[in-house]
Specification:
Largest sheet: none
CATH topology of the domain at 90-272: MetI-like fold
CATH architecture of the domain at 90-272: Orthogonal Bundle
Low-confidence stretches: none
Radius of gyration: 24 Å
Order of helices and strands: HHHHHHHHHHHHH
Mean pLDDT: 79
């Protein structure tokens, strides 16, 4: 297990290095000049040159990248071109809202997905199975921005039972929970659909296994058969989907944060891309990539805890 963690940590460093290079180069190759945006429409050419020199943008791209890596290895993500704020401070101030939204969305997805998948597997080819399958198809097909707008229209505008957006209250308060409901459902619906389909197929495979038939023949109660014997083994592939989707939720909060006016990493990234704020974009992408790889490492560790047959 220790060897696995060390190997994955080295892979994480190499992956982040490659991502930093791709993001850095793509931002510099893309059209648009940060100096023009910072200087404004009335800036002269000499003003633009002074801005580029102060930001180091007049140097060759590879030299800029080496300087960026030197600061990165020292824990320095740079400073925002727009606000002059340290990128690490900007991320720290915005990250709690994103992690709160992603965690709540994952909880919603797990609860809905696992229950729907288990019910669908136990009642195969019944109306419950058809309903669950239809829900899974709709959840994957419906765009987040449309679903979020519809939920706001119904529950915020018409019924006026939930707030329109923003995560300004502590999550452990009633107001904080109300603020999380609509964005969590919006972001977690697609993941819930994938988890439901994976749970259903995995449960059907496990239920047809020989050891389940043996337990049923010995007179094991149906409730114990499903929740104790079948569910634990069926959850192994489901955990993979959950881990991958959680990493994807962190990077997929952009649209949901825009719809619900949540000041998280997603909105920070969008604003930085529009302003050609290279350091902020690079810092947010590295953060999301690092968390994604870390979540996959945690999933591998959970494998070994759930299934003793798996050994690293």
């Amino acid at each position: 297990m220790v060897r696995l963690i060390v190997q994955r940590f080295m892979q994480l460093l190499l992956l982040l290095l490659g991502i930093s290079f791709l993001v850095f180069m793509s931002m510099h190759i893309a059209p648009g000049d940060p100096a023009t945006i910072i200087g404004g429409p009335n800036a002269t050419e000499s003003d633009l040159e002074a801005i580029r020199e102060s930001l180091g943008l007049n140097q060759p791209v590879l030299v800029q990248y080496v300087d960026y890596l030197a600061g990165l290895f020292q824990g320095d993500l740079g400073y925002s071109y727009q606000t002059k704020q340290a990128v690490s401070d900007a991320i720290v101030s915005r990250f709690p809202a994103t992690i709160k939204l992603a965690t709540a969305s994952m909880i919603v997805a797990i609860i809905i997905g696992v229950i729907a998948g288990m019910v669908s597997a136990r009642k195969q080819n019944s109306w419950l199975d058809v309903t669950s399958t239809t829900f899974a198809l709709a959840g994957v097909s419906i765009p987040n921005f449309w679903l979020g707008a519809m939920l706001i229209l119904i529950f915020s505008v018409n019924l006026q039972v939930l707030p329109v957006g923003g995560l300004n209250s502590p999550f452990y308060t009633v107001d904080g929970i109300k603020e999380l409901i609509l964005p969590a459902i919006t972001l977690g619906t697609a993941s819930a659909a994938l988890i439901a389909r994976m749970t259903r197929s995995s449960m059907l495979e496990v239920i047809r296994s020989d050891y389940i038939r043996t337990a049923r023949a010995k007179g094991v109660r149906k409730h114990s058969l499903i929740w104790i014997h079948a569910l634990k083994n069926a959850m192994i592939p489901v955990i993979t989907v959950i881990g991958i989707n959680f990493g994807g939720l962190l990077g997929g909060t952009i649209i949901t944060e825009q719809v619900f006016a949540i000041n998280g990493i997603g909105r920070l990234m969008i604003d930085a891309i529009a302003a050609r704020d290279f350091p902020v974009v690079q810092g947010t992408v590295l953060l999301v990539a690092g968390i994604f790889v870390f979540v996959n490492l945690v999933v591998d560790v959970i494998y070994a805890l759930i299934d003793p047959r798996i050994s690293y």
